[in-house]
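User: Here's a chain of 526 residues. Predict its fold as tokens.
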Amino acid sequence: MNAYVIYIDEDPGASTTPWRMYSVQGVAQIKHDDRVVSLYREGLEQHLTLVGVVKLSENTSVVLADEPPQLGGLTEAPMHELPQRPVVTSIAPAIGRKAGGDVVEIQGDQLLDASNVFFGSMPATSFTVAGPNGPIHATAPPGTDTAHVTVVTPGGTSAMTSADQFTYQDPGPPPRIHTIIPGTGLTTGGETIVVLVQSQSGLKPQVTGLLFASVPSPSVVEDPTYPVSVSAWHAYKVVTPPNVAGSAALTLLSTEGSFHSLIPFTYTAPPAPQPPAVTSLSKSIGPTIGGTTVRIAGTGLGDATAVHFGSVPAQSFDVTMDESKAIVIDAVTPPNQGAVPITVTTPRGTSPAVGAPTFESQPPRSLSSLTFGDQTVGTASAPRTAPFPLAVSLSDFPPNEVVPYSGGNPSVSATFLLAGLGPTFTVGQLMAAFGNMSLTYSVIGFSLDRAAGSDFALQDGAAPGTVDVLFRPVESGYRADVVRANVGGVHISGGGLVVAIAGAIALSFVPVLRSYLGVMLDGTGV
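Assistant: Prediction complete.
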């Protein structure tokens, strides 16, 4: 016998063949249920073998006969392979609440084109299909007793077996807290911990919240990826709320009720913020007039609000990163005296001065000094005269002072070589070869090392080689600068050096005189 599957065209007016028929050869028996027709062939020892399933509808019928049914306008078409019937191999969990709402995972085969999922005769509230063979995640509808979970696809409805039985039962005891990882946190809250919840009813816990003492967690989310060793355990990621220091009793809230845990969560106050620390300096010595850039290394420097050299604030500072990506501070030294510790201030406090690296301010090179004493900030003192000599001798310079001779005159260079002087030589070596000499020069102006507008102002002096200086501090505390003469023409005379050589090396002494002809200025702003 054969099975004949007959389809009626839903729009007969649009087709000359309102009927289509497919035949399945060698079918011994067909079985109907309310949604599908199952087709069977006889196997060995008269056992029936399922060969196909036809989904029934208003336009579809199945006839078992030896010959094709004689229907007007019916055309027999070649039989295509029928969709295979879905198979449910397991469900989890197999127990759920009578009110419904539990998500059940359905494992099996041929589940891809599922059009419905039934719990008994009730359709699932919702479901999703993950792949050709599942799994399907279906939300159970309300129900009672035990129901078969069946899946409907174009291949039919899955057979009902013991593997698909889902039991409805009332909730048992509420789930309990098994483990807290970790069991401590800061009073500021905001930390994520893991809470392992153990089911006591066989049902998956429906956790709705967690109280730390009386304070609710802002977030409780199940973490199905967290490894658990017992199937009744379920992991939840919990964000701790702010709380007072000490032990906080935990209360687990769920649809089954509340569970008051004997496992506490301990709150501890966060550690007190630590002040910065200065560990090293790129330079430890500089002039008293300030202006030296010092790189400060240490810890906790990133939010610096002030840098002090002793009690004097840095002229300026910049927080930056060094080559190793460590946070450092580049600070410009202020006018200062002696060796003082460097400290850094942040919102967390000031680095300790005791044991801190020190920076020593030393007087810059100068001929003489001019001290003004105390002066009110923003006001100017009476002018004082800073004299400069218009002639000096080589013996006035330190013997190790290097003369930057360019070596441009071959005759002079040859003379120096004969005298044992190389391309570079010092004042002491020059005097040893040619004796002491006098240097006279013209002064074409004066300038301050810290530039005009700092703390001192210059006026023309009454006599040649002099300049009048006014002290007008812009800040309180020790203030300092150096006024230097700008040298013009230089003339050298001496008994051991011929005129030609003296003229050739005279210009080499301009920078030497520039660094030497200075008067140290200082005072205190009040």
